[in-house]
Amino acid sequence: MIRLYTDNLNISYGERLIVKNLRVDIPDKKITTIIGPNGCGKSTLLKAITRIIPPQSGTIVLDGKNIAKEKTKVLARKIAILPQTPESVNGLTAGELVSYGRFPYQKGFGRLTSKDIEVIDWALDVTGTSEFKHRSVDALSGGQRQRVWIAMALAQETEIIFLDEPTTYLDLAHQLEVLELLQRLNKEENRTIIMVLHDLNQAARFADYIVALKDGEVVKAGHCEEVINQHVLKKVFHIDAEIGRDPRTNKPMCITYNLIKGEQKNEKDFDSISTVAHAVH
């Protein structure tokens, strides 16, 4: 089932066209990951779908309606986003930060109701951050902070959650902790999860559906086996990848890779190739 999709989407920064005539379908109640080299439009796409930035042209449709015409609070009850580098006000406790997720439901002076408090406590509990409720967010570790931000997104009670590189700056254990939490939310809460990931093997392990972008266009979208393969990775990242199987999940994984030599068209292409080295570790 497709509740959310883009149609002929064009997004520009100044005179530079970043996303071009893009059609993307987001499967409902699934985990979708977006992959691609730096500068290909991944974060830009998320910002447009969540109405942080306006597209130059085209439409973004949710439940049969153009989101550009939706009221902000109405949309905020359907879509939550965790940006790439979220910043909180100094001195906020975890509980106070999570309470911001209740904004779409507040009226008048915005005082928290008993329902709001119940949802906040649930969001803290499900993300394993209840013990940090009265602790300053600044005093938490990177993984703990990331889980508190996810709790804030959950407190919005949306069925769709966007996350832009949720594992950035986290060590391997905390990366796995965050991704397993998102997978659990998808399986147990039926949340639709859309996230940008740089690590191809994490994308393959946790995604039901993968969208591979390059230069603002979809190279391939589909199940893991359709995207994490030698042909697609060559087109997207300009690498010669050796693909095997994850012994624990049986999903495809990139075992090793080489840069493809002699096909760089210009210095800009070479820079894009260089940036992808971290994506397959």
Give a verbal description of the structure.
Residues 4-240 form the ABC transporter domain. Keywords: ATP-binding, Cell membrane, Ion transport, Iron, Iron transport, Membrane, Nucleotide-binding, Transport. This is ABC transporter ATP-binding protein. One of its GO terms (cellular component) is plasma membrane. InterPro entries: AAA+_ATPase, ABC_transporter-like_ATP-bd, ABC_transporter-like_CS, P-loop_NTPase, Siderophore_ABC-ATPase. With 281 residues, this protein is an alpha/beta fold. The chain has two domains: 2-78 and 158-230, Rossmann fold; 89-157, no CATH class. It is 33% helix and 28% strand. The chain is built from ten helices and twelve strands. It has helices spanning 42-49, 72-76, 94-99, 114-126, 142-155, 172-189, 200-206, 224-227, 230-237, 267-275; strands spanning 2-13, 16-27, 31-35, 57-62, 65-66, 79-82, 160-164, 192-196, 209-214, 217-222, 239-245, 252-259. Strands 6-7-8-3-9-10 form a six-stranded mixed β-sheet, sandwiched between helices. Strand 11 (239-245) and strand 12 form a beta hairpin. Helix 4 runs antiparallel to helix 5 and helix 5 packs parallel to helix 6 (172-189). The chain is globular, with a radius of gyration of 19 Å. The two termini are 33 Å apart. Residues 265-281 have low confidence and may be disordered.
Which percent bin holds the helix content? 25-40%
* SS-based class: alpha/beta
Determine the mean pLDDT.
89
CATH fold call of the largest domain: Rossmann fold
The DSSP helix count reads 10
CATH architecture tag of the largest domain: 3-Layer(aba) Sandwich
User: Termini, distance in Å?
Assistant: 33 Å
CATH superfamily of the largest domain, called what?
P-loop containing nucleotide triphosphate hydrolases
CATH class of the largest domain: Alpha Beta
**Low-confidence parts:** 265-281
How many domains, as an integer? Answer: 2
Rounded to the nearest angstrom, the radius of gyration is 19 Å
Spatial order of strands in the largest sheet: 6-7-8-3-9-10
Profile the largest sheet.
6 strands, mixed
**β content, as a range?**
25-35%
The shape is globular
GO biological process, one term: iron ion transport
Pfam families: ABC_tran
GO molecular function: ATP binding; ATP hydrolysis activity
GO cellular component, one term: plasma membrane
